[in-house]
Structures are given as structure tokens and as C-alpha cells.
Amino acid sequence: MSSTSRAIVAASVGVVEAMKDQMGVCRWNYIIRSAQQSTKNHLRSLSQAKNLSSSTSAMVSSKVRDQEKMKKSEESLRTVMYLSCWGPN
Asked: Using the 8-state DSSP alphabet, how is residue 2 labeled?
């Protein structure tokens, strides 16, 4: 490569870098990447919260079913006790 072509390449690179700085291309790339990363993190946390809430609701419904079973068994025991004490002899 001759010295003039090297000078032209160096000048071209310098002009491109100056234009990037002047137009704010580097800053816009940073802002876009930052917004994209923030959105990705936000969606990930929403997904985790949704999974957590579904597992929590499953746990709560399980507890409710257990309580209903316990109430039924207590009522059955109460009926048996009543019949054994006051039922027909």
C-alpha cells in the first residue's frame, strides 16, 4: 500500500469516527441496548412472578381442599358421637 492510500484510509476512518460522535450513533446504540436489556429483564421477572403466583394459587387451593376434608371428617365424627350418645337404644 502506498503512503497516499494509507493516508486516505486513515482520513476516512477519522471522518467516520467523527461523524459517529457528531451524530450520536454510539450514544443511540447504548440507549437502545440498555432499553432492550431492561425490557428483557422486566419480562423475565414478570414471567417468574406469574410462575410463582400460579404455584402459590395451587398451594392455596390445596390448603382449601385439605380444610374442607377436615371439616367433613369432623362433621362425620360429630354425627357418630351424637348417634352413639343419643341415638336409638
From this structure: -
pTM (two decimals): 0.37
Sign of torsion, CA 33 34 38 39?
Answer: negative
Which whole number is the average pLDDT over 11-39? 72
Contacts with 19 (C-beta within 8 Å, 6 or more apart), sequence order:
25
Q: Which of 63, 38, 60 is nearest to 71 (CA)?
A: 63
- Backbone torsions φ then ψ of 82, nearest 5 degrees: -65, -50
Q: Residue 87 region, left (φ>0) first, then alpha (ψ -120 to 50), else beta?
A: beta
- Distance CA(38)–CA(55), nearest Å, equals 26
